[in-house]
Amino acid sequence: MIKINNLKAQVEDKEILKGINLEINPGEIHAIMGPNGSGKSTLSSVIAGRDEYEVTDGSIDFNGEDLLDLDPEERAHKGIFLSFQYPVEIPGVTVSNFIKTAINESRKGRGEEPMEAREMLAKMREKAALLEMDKSYLSRSLNEGFSGGEKKRNEIFQMAMLEPKLAILDETDSGLDIDALRIVAGGVNKLRSAENAVVIITHYQRLLDYIKPDFVHVLYNGKIVKSGGPELAHELEEKGYDWIKAENA
Amino acid sequence: MSDEILDEITATEYKYGFTTDIESDTLPPGLNEDVIRLISEKKNEPQWMLDWRLDAFKTWLEMKEPDWPNVTYAKPDFQAVSYYSAPKQKKELESLDEVDPELLRTFERLGISLDEQKRLSGVAMDVVVDSVSVATTFKKTLAEKGIIFCSMSEAIQEHPELVRKHLGTVIPKRDNFYAALNSAVFTDGSFCYIPKGVRCPMELSTYFRINEANTGQFERTLVIADEGSYVSYLEGCTAPSRDENQLHAAVVELVAMEDAEIKYSTVQNWYPGDAQGKGGVFNFVTKRGICERNAKISWTQVETGSAVTWKYPSCILKGDNSIGEFYSVAVTNNYQQADTGTKMVHLGKNTKSTIISKGISAGKSHNSYRGLVRVGARAENARNFSQCDSLLMGDQCGAHTFPYIEAQHPTAQIEHEATTSKIGEDQLFYCNQRGIGTEEAIALIVNGYCKDVLNQLPMEFAVEAQKLLEVSLEGSVG
Ligand SMILES: Nc1ncnc2c1ncn2[C@@H]1O[C@H](COP(=O)(O)OP(=O)(O)OP(=O)(O)O)[C@@H](O)[C@H]1O
Ligand SMILES: [Mg+2]
Predict the structure, then answer these.
(1) C-beta of residue B469 within 8 angstroms of C-beta of residue B304
(2) Residue A172 Cβ < 6 Å to ligand 1
(3) C-beta atoms surrounding B439 within 10 Å
(4) Each residue of B213-264: pLDDT tens digit?
(5) Do the Cβ atoms of A90 and B451 come within 8 Å?
(6) Do B445 and A90 touch (CB under 8 A)?
(7) Nearest chain B Cα distance for residue A125, angstroms
(8) What residues does each domain of chain A span?
(9) Which of A64, B284, B402, B417 is deepest in the core (most CB within 10 A)?
């Protein structure tokens, strides 16, 4: 589905991604872990197309297309979704109006008709229920005054609405209480299929207890320095990153 | 039946002999007493009206053009203006093909129907009948309730006692330079009277007075809501209005008697000049309402047009328990300049006012909010809440806020909140990531920002205003 090859990116002349290689196939779940500041969020931003980051080398192929040629919204239309580590507030724009605009703009981008109002409403109700969100969220201003956990849950609600091919969840677990973590993870699991893939960026094992990854990668200093199966996450939880840092010193 | 309607139109056109000879019906430029006498005579006005105009003219001669607004422009030469031009038919075009394609594109974006596009751009139409019949039914319904809604000229002829009693009582002739000028030379405008206890059953819109739409550059409006009545009045149009007249100096007076309520909504979209700032209308408007006991006046405005705007819809809260509200969105783009705001003058006890002002500046434009809240010595328990927000798009535009507070009573409660924000890269990227392109994202964010004001507009007007905001800000970022 996505093939990242020797990807290098910088911001203000500072190189942050120093040659990333990663391949993800449909149906797979990948976890990316790594110390603070190692470049995890930068990698997700570059995949999503944030122009603050300048790609200096390498390529990203998404279902046979050169992703780096596309605007962020075009990437979204093709099925890339990013659950933000820090979701943004948009005052005065309700969650339902925002998601409606997002869905219909994506459809337009793919040359499809807008979704019928009734179908839209039914879908919003269904997905809100899936994530055990009160319907009143739908008429609140997007993320304005939301608690940290509510913001994260709202990200996954949007993911559920947009049904992406590749979802990147950047620290979606941080800020979620124990029950919310279970609910959100349950929601993600329900959305899994053989056609889509999920990348989970996290610092902790606990989310991976609910969503079992096929692969775990360690990102350190702008590179993937280690990859393995689910056991790698347990090992990191136990030993921390010192041994990784030592190996790559 | 369509014959009747056609008769009606032609009758109004010929009423004052306007269409006899276009040339002789336009006065040469310049302003003096004789010009005013001529205007009054052409309109067949009573002596008191002429005297009133002449008095205004004398006052005006002694006045100076204000220079305190935060705008710069070449001052108009008042002797170069022609003060009387019969409401002649604009030159009719054969078809929409002759209309500026840029204008048509805007019409389309605003979702204006083909017929309406023709009407607005002055294309000859054979389908007028439709809207005329709407207007006729409309007039009938109003008449049944005793509501008077007509042009100012007609009101001076048909309802002189009402006009004479109220004209200039809210905005005196000597109020300011432009109001004085308007009082001397106004040629037409709208008049509206709602009788005691009557709730006007529909939104009154100048739009329905199609055969009197050509109101010219010195427009005069007077709305009188008698005791316990209610009216919602819509002014303007979202379609871009191009006008040869560079200077517009309108006066709007509202009288809300005891227990009455007036809701006055404006969408102003005069030609702002081109992207370089050339051309464009100067809009100097004086709008004010007076509230008697328990009365309420709400001003709601969405301002996107004009090269220079100078406008402060105000409320005089004279009666106890009266309420004044001001909701405003002012957008400036390219080289536009706007200095707008409101005055809330609390005179009665327990008077309340609310001010919500949302400025949006883009391009190289300047957008100023100027607001005065005055609490008089008798105004026990007066309360005001003001919220003035500015949204900047890009880094070459400016937003300025000038709040003035004068409280002469110790019980006054005045709250003022102000914010300045930018549409953040973060917000745009967030929208982009969800599949929403940058133009759409800006529209979405701006609409969210203006929501508190747009919510005050009547439903269908709000939808139009929303689209208008989108069109006005097109291409302003990125
Ligand atoms: N816009 C930017 N300008 C300057 N430096 C940046 C910018 N974005 C990221 N960086 C730097 O790049 C490095 C990687 O940041 P990034 O946010 O990708 O880390 P992360 O792995 O997601 O960390 P965390 O686990 O704390 O979320 C950091 O040193 C950060 O300060
Ligand atoms: Mg991060």
Answers:
(1) yes
(2) no
(3) 15
(4) 334 578 899 999 999 999 999 887 655 555 555 778 889 999 999 999 999 9
(5) no
(6) yes
(7) 19
(8) 2-86+148-247
(9) B284
